[in-house]
Amino acid sequence: MKEPPMVAASPPPDPARRVDLFMTALVRAWVRGVERRPRLALGLTLGLMLLSGWAIATHLSIRTDTSAMLSPDLPFQQDHARLKAAFPDLGDDLVVVIDGLTPAVAERAAQTLSQALTQRPDVIARAVDLAGLPFFRRNGLLYLSPAALDTLAGTLTQAQPFLAGLGRDPSLRGLADLMDLALGHTEAPSDPILIAVLERMTAVTTATQHNEMALMDWSAAFGTSPARGTATRRFLLIKPVLNNASLSPAGAAMAAVRAAAAEAGLSEATGVRVRLTGSAALAQEELGTVRSSMGVSNLVSFGIVALLLVWGLRSGRLILATNAALVAGLVITAGFAAVTVGTLNLISVAFAVLFIGLSVDFGLHYGLRYREARVAGLANAAALDEAASSTGTSLVLSALAAMLAFLSFLPTDYLGLAQLGLISGAGMAIALLLNLTLLPAILTLMPARPVKPIGVPAGALRFSLLHLPERRPRATLAMTSVLVGGALWLAVQIRFDVDPLALKDPATESLSTLYDVMKEPGLDPYSIDILAADAAEAARLTEALNQLEAVRSVASLPALVPAEQDQKLQVIEDLAFTVGPSLSLPQEAPPDAAGLVEARRRLIARLADVHAGTAAPAAQALATALGALGDDPTGLERLQARLLDGLPDQIARLRDSLSAGPVSLADIPPDLRARYGAADGQMRLQVFPRDDLRDPRALQAFVAAVRPVAPHATGAPVIIVEAGRTVIGAFAEAAALATVLITAMLAAVMRRRRDILLVFVPVLLSGLFTLGSAVLIGQALNLANVIVLPLLVGLGVAGAIHVIGRAHETAGAVLDSSTPRAVVFSALTTVASFSSLILSDHPGTASMGILLTLALTLGLVCTLGILPAILALLRR
């Protein structure tokens, strides 16, 4: 009996093929289940949206503190925490910057505002005018250097006649008497103080005539004040009551300050400018910028994506279904963020724009494949099934790649990035699920009608730019090699700016004010803080720090006690003997209207009679100005007020300063002492830099100089430098982890190992080109936009997965299918969504939009330009 011929058994499918078949079958089964119960799918989705809306309204908030975006377990974070524990009042403060036309105006404004704010304990815990404290009124001269005090003593002695005359009669009549005395004792007056007084009086008189604001600064005229920039500026240090349950924690306190200033008439019209800065104000205004900008970005992003869907899908029902999946996914993802995270940061707040740009990717690929099947004549159910079969694996892989890229942020010490990774990673799963649930459910109930094809017919693209890479692969790759060389040369020049101030809007009042006052002693935000265990250690550290070239000065509790007191007190005692009596004369009653007119007449006559000496031009100019003003009593009263209203206060302050006595540490005001000395004996040293630390190299040098002396130093410069290192390490870690995870995923589902390498080609090239382009346009990497680099690993592979998968399915004719259209419109929607971030007023968010737009645009070029050229060469 003849045996039947042996038939070789078919080899079992390889593991990658089995995974591919399993995912395709799973997606098809899911879509078929949705087709059978579309209303149940819609109902469940709506229920999840309602629950998410409730969670968003009750649990979601935003925090702008950049230090909270890093792990508290990092050594430099722990150093800062120890400082905060010892000095809990540091930070979360408001600084009210008061600029007046004269020192007297600034002082009165500070006193008025400080007193008003003490009446608002509901929003202001404490308001301190350090310069206005009685301690400094009495002992302020002790803080001058011996040389400066000697100069002041000489000037006051020379100005004694002016002080005595105007102290007794601070009116136009007193000025007339003073000019009789000063100009009448010589035929050629040339006293420099007299000339300064005449010139300033002329300026005020002329401004009064023209209804312009001007006030007489007698301290500047007598040379008895510091430089004008500091003499006319006062600071109120405010501890606000923060409402952390509100989206505007410091909003009520800032509003109270502005309301009190307005009620007191402190405005530029009265010679006063009031501005707010400090950490609480910076955070408050940054929060407002982020909230308003992200709202605009989200609306613009959604609008542009919707328009691109109309252009790309050209089917009303497909557009409706895709947008429905987008909106539902965004709401549910935000609800997930509210439940799992609760408080968003400056990076994770961008999850909405990221979701809008990425979610439509799934809908576009599924929707266009469904439309292609409907055009081919398939029934609605068959078209849904065909779309699931054709795109299922690619969609799952793309979603997994994006998820892995986002979730790779989780293990890093950059908590802001980890938070975004968690939210957006979950968002990718939600987007995939809704595009395979809500979209088929809507299309089951409202099938899209078959229409004419929108893909380009086979052969029509062969003469287009899109087919050039396939037709000229060698030329394409040769040009790519040249571009890679240029990009490498540029990429190594990329800057990384880790200064958190660079992420804030410079147009906000708080930041512009901060930059304006940065050179004020004690207000430089770039100072280093050092915690000393006791006075002995503080003294040792201070001595070592003062020897460093990078250090300008060191503020500490012992440094608050004036040096060389015996020498200074002797000078002050001599002044009190010679000048003091002139400051305590009884004041005469002010002149009436007739007295003002007569005083003006006497002044003009005396001034006009000066024809010789260096004071003559100034005297003649003042006589002319007084003559032009006229003799209207109202105008003369206004002039008298502008010339002399602040003088009695200044004389009183000078009189108080001549009663100075020995100062010890116990005499330092508690509000000031508490900033440098803790209750347990620890001391804070505040180290100020010599150079402008807005220069990154100077910042690095300052920290490098101080830390060998004080290894546990903290403060903004240390945090900025260490945060930069942490962020760079976090992104390198995330990028490496994402690459490993995505490679493992691709190895499990791709039959050809070569395909895995090909998937990463567009990613590597677009990353390199992005860095090179950033250098060309002058865009530095920062704490916000550096997110682009690890994201490229996950997002960049999506288009390559679709192109390579469809290339195998169509035997190389990938550019003649709907896939290029889906890839192009997917990239366009993502780019359009991310580019809306550029509209943000927040520099960090805007820079994120710039770099994301660059990266995805270049990624599209690499995916549809360079990858097809490589595939074409490999097919030959």
From TrEMBL:
One of its GO terms (cellular component) is plasma membrane. SUPFAM superfamilies: Multidrug efflux transporter AcrB transmembrane domain. Keywords: Cell membrane, Membrane, Transmembrane, Transmembrane helix. PROSITE patterns: SSD (PS50156). It is found in: Cell membrane. Pfam families: MMPL. Its main location: membrane. Residues 315-445 form the SSD domain. It is a multi-pass membrane protein. It comes from the Bacteria. The chain crosses the membrane at residues 40-62, 294-311, 318-340, 346-366, 387-410, 422-443, 475-492, 727-749, 756-777, 783-801, 822-840, 846-874. This is SSD domain-containing protein. It comes from Pararhodospirillum photometricum DSM 122. The lineage of its organism: Bacteria, Pseudomonadati, Pseudomonadota, Alphaproteobacteria, Rhodospirillales.
